[in-house]
UniProtKB/TrEMBL annotation:
Source superkingdom: Bacteria
Organism: Novosphingobium panipatense
Family: Belongs to the glycogen phosphorylase family.
This protein's name: Alpha-1,4 glucan phosphorylase
Enzyme Commission number: 2.4.1.1
Length: 809
């Protein structure tokens, strides 16, 4: 009997891939099959796969050149890309081939995937969004470069010692990175300090210090291998690596000072900026990668197009938050000082080329720099900013703006210590300024950019965030993906909005059972991982209640913990009730200098230690703080979650993307009407999400009217008891006063409305208990969540950027 031609083709492909891996193992790793260890097979598999990617990469680049297409340039301080092996295999459609090829040599692909470190190139949602966007750009066949920094250690590795966060260097590059390509020909000289002098008819910036920025490229594979784009990260090299005269004179440290200063630019993501030295390093990092990127963009354009004046027709530069805002001044410097354009012409080109995404309404997150620091580090850019400011303020005066409005619009904050406002610079230097959720965009117009919006009323627009369904459904949850394919067919693999076909099957008990089986399997796998790594045993039949995200007071992990203490007390006080078993899972990193956030991590671990050791609650409540939360851990936790905690103070979360990932994997959301929760509610329906608490308008009103949290606390018995237990040392017997300050902040001002929202949150959690006990209803709601969040694909988001901002589709 003739063999199945499809199966034979697959067998041939796997056999050929196996030969490729063996060739790489011998010729590039220098080992034969018998001598090879796991890490040798890991490197060989990646390099063999990379060879296939390179062909598509080169073809994609050539196609862009031949078509003369417009490129998108995405500038971001963070790219939280996670592991790339499984992502590339899936998007190229060769996962089965690789698994079979390695199995022929007795090697398990899943074990090799676990060897890949997470790239330490980001912290939270900002960086993961950038990674999702890069994948969607390639999927939609849009030519694009991502620009950032190749951090050697990046965001720290988090260890929990006695409940406290300890920051350790993340050594993800310790054994090299088989995905990357160094591009020595793409090296740019970056200057700092010095002075500006007149030279002929123009000016010359004579920098006092210079370093070289060298490009290191990583391929980004789109779905079904349609296109491979480039993530270009910059590494820093000193002009003179060592001063031999100083070294030979015995000044070994001084001899290497230039190397140390250069390497510090790419060592750590977000160095603490509580000191002047930390502030200077942050500014140097931002200018370093932005200047290299702008020079690279202009060089490429002039090389292939000839005339720098056509830059807006061929390049779209997107600034991901305020970190790369200095790009406005740098592009102006290059256009005026290097390319010789008149200032006004350069200004129009700059605005037409650049667009800016705002990710926060927190004033402290809208970066500003002390004017003396900025002028000392970037004297020419300070001149350019003054020149831009004079034009903008004259325009504002002609438009009839008041003195107060002009003061708010100015690029220089004169209210205290004079500071350069980077968000204002990005706003005036861009033709488009977008928010990342409908509510966030509306609040931008009313709060942080109210006066700029009044001056430029057409500039602000909304682009609600999205996540790539390849990584956040297909790859991290293959069991659920298979069930969905069996139920509605494979169309959703190419268009996530096709998931809506599941709505017709939401009440189908057979589908509900199959999805529940997958969920339980994922919970068993997560429970086993936590048992092995933390020694904590979890019941997979309990509700997995999850809050994993950056630790910040506005995200209100503290509210969750206070309610956990209240629940703990209720379970012990009322053992006769039928309590729903819960596992409360927390994860996230606190900024190194953020005292209260680090104290919240300690509180979570103190509560866990007490609750988990108390036989009075039995298996009804467990608390787990998973250390070193990253993309790979998210890929384990999210498919296993039953309940998604999205409980930020309304009006303070720009969007969130974790909320989308959880819903896509069949978790129900408990949350406030904040960020994208509003749009998720509108998509999944009010019956399939649990909303509680004050709205953004009500939060603003409470603050304006003189909110008294003490009166609220005194009126809520459960809240008062929980706060008293925490503050009095019930959970910190070794240091009874440890949490006094944290809790007194709630009594004194409660800026984040934990007390104001507590009773509503506790009631919502009991509503969740009731829903959980209705298994059929819970499963139907889970299916409706999956069915209706396909709109939150990053493909949709990028398509909107491409059509409405970048004009590339």
């Amino acid at each position: 009997m003739a063999s199945d031609p499809v199966s034979q083709t697959r067998n041939d492909a796997a056999a050929q891939l196996g030969k490729d891996i063996l060739r790489v193992l011998r010729r590039r790793i220098g080992k034969d099959q018998k001598a090879a260890k796991q890490h040798d097979w890991y490197a060989s598999a990646i390099l063999a796969l990379r060879d296939k990617i390179i062909d598509v990469w080169i073809e994609s680049t050539q196609r862009t050149y031949e078509n003369g297409g417009k490129r998108v340039y995405y500038l971001s301080m963070e790219f939280l890309i996670g592991r790339l092996l499984r992502d590339a295999l899936s998007n190229l459609g060769v996962s089965d081939d690789m698994e079979a090829a390695l199995a022929a040599y007795g090697v398990d692909l899943a074990e090799l995937e676990e060897l890949e470190p997470d790239a330490a190139l980001g912290n939270g949602g900002l960086g993961r969004l950038a990674a999702c966007f890069m994948e969607s750009l390639a999927t939609l066949d849009i030519p694009a470069y991502g620009y950032g920094i190749r951090y050697v250690n990046g965001m720290f590795r988090q260890r929990i010692d006695d409940g406290w966060q300890v920051e350790l260097p993340e050594t993800w590059l310790a054994h090299g990175n088989p995905w990357e390509f160094e591009r020595l020909e793409s090296t740019y000289r970056i200057g700092f300090g010095g002075e500006v002098v007149i030279e002929g008819d123009g000016v010359m910036w004579n920098a006092a210090e210079q370093v070289d920025a060298t490009a290191v490229d990583t391929p980004v594979v789109g779905w079904r291998g349609k296109r491979v784009n480039t993530l270009r990260l910059w590494t820093a090299n000193p002009i003179d690596p060592i001063r031999l005269d100083a070294f030979n004179a015995g000044d070994h440290f001084g001899a290497l000072a230039g190397t140390v200063r250069a390497e510090s630019l790419v060592r750590v993501l977000y160095p603490a900026d509580s000191s002047p030295a930390g502030q200077e390093l942050r500014l140097r990092q931002e200018y370093f990668f932005t200047a290299a990127s702008i020079q690279d963009i202009v060089r490429r354009h002039v090389q292939y197009e000839g005339d720098v004046r056509t830059l807006p027709e061929k390049a779209a530069i997107q600034l991901n938050d305020t970190h790369p805002s200095v790009a406005v001044a740098e592009l102006m410097r290059v256009l005026v000082d290097v390319e010789g354009l008149e200032f006004d012409e350069a200004w129009e080109i700059c605005k037409q080329t650049i667009s800016y995404t705002n990710h926060t309404l927190l004033p402290e997150a809208l970066e500003t720099w002390p004017l003396p620091l900025f002028e000392r580090m970037l004297p020419r850019h300070m001149q350019i900013i003054y020149a831009i400011n004079s034009r903008v303020l004259r325009e504002a005066r002609r438009a009839g703006c008041s003195d107060a409005q002009i003061a708010a619009i100015s690029l220089i904050d004169e209210s205290g210590e004079r500071r350069v406002r980077m968000a204002n610079l990005a706003f005036v230097g861009a033709h488009s300024v977008n928010g990342v959720a409908a509510l966030h965009t509306d609040l931008m117009k009313e709060t942080v950019f109210a006066d700029l919006h009044a001056l430029y009323p057409q500039r602000i627009n909304n682009k609600t965030n999205g996540v790539t369904p390849r990584r956040w459904l297909q790859q991290c949850n293959p069991g659920l993906t298979k069930v969905i394919v069996d139920a509605i067919g494979p169309a959703f693999l190419d268009d996530a909005e096709a998931l809506c076909a599941l709505n017709a099957l939401a009440d189908d008990p057979l589908l509900g059972d199959r999805i529940a089986e997958v969920k339980r399997s994922n919970k068993v796998a997560l429970a086993e991982h936590i048992r092995k790594t933390m020694g904590i045993r979890l019941n997979p039949d309990a509700m997995f209640d999850v809050q994993i995200k950056r630790i910040h007071e506005y995200k209100r992990q503290l509210l969750n913990l206070i309610e956990t203490v209240a629940l703990y007390d209720q379970i012990r006080s009322h053992p006769e009730r039928d309590w729903v078993p819960r596992v409360k899972i927390f994860g996230g990193k606190a900024a190194s200098s953020y005292h209260n956030a680090k104290l919240i991590i300690k509180l979570a671990n103190d509560i866990a230690r007490r609750v988990n050791a108390d036989p009075a609650v039995g298996g009804l409540l467990k608390v787990v703080y998973v250390p070193n939360y990253n993309v790979s851990l998210a890929e384990r936790i999210i498919p296993a979650a039953d309940l998604s905690e999205q409980i930020s103070t309304a009006g303070m979360e720009a969007s969130g993307t974790g909320n989308m990932k959880f819903a896509l994997n069949g978790a129900l959301t408990i949350g406030t009407l904040d960020g994208a929760n509003v749009e998720i509610r509108d998509r999944v329906g009010e019956d399939n999400i649990v909303i509680f608490g004050l709205t953004a308008e009500e939060v603003a009103e409470r603050r304006a009217q003189g909110y008294d949290p003490r009166a609220v606390i005194e009126g809520s018995r459960e809240l008062g008891q929980a706060l008293s237990a925490i503050a009095s040392g019930v959970f910190s017997p070794d240091d009874p006063r440890r949490y006094e300050g944290l809790i007194s902040g709630i009594y004194d001002h409660d800026w984040f409305m934990c007390a104001a929202d507590f009773d509503a949150y506790a009631a919502a959690q009991r509503d969740v208990d009731g829903r959980w006990e209705d298994k059929a209803g819970w499963r139907a709601s889970a299916i409706r969540n999956i069915a209706n969040v396909g709109w939150f694909s990053s493909d949709r988001t990028i398509s909107e950027y491409a059509k409405e901002i970048w004009k590339v589709l």
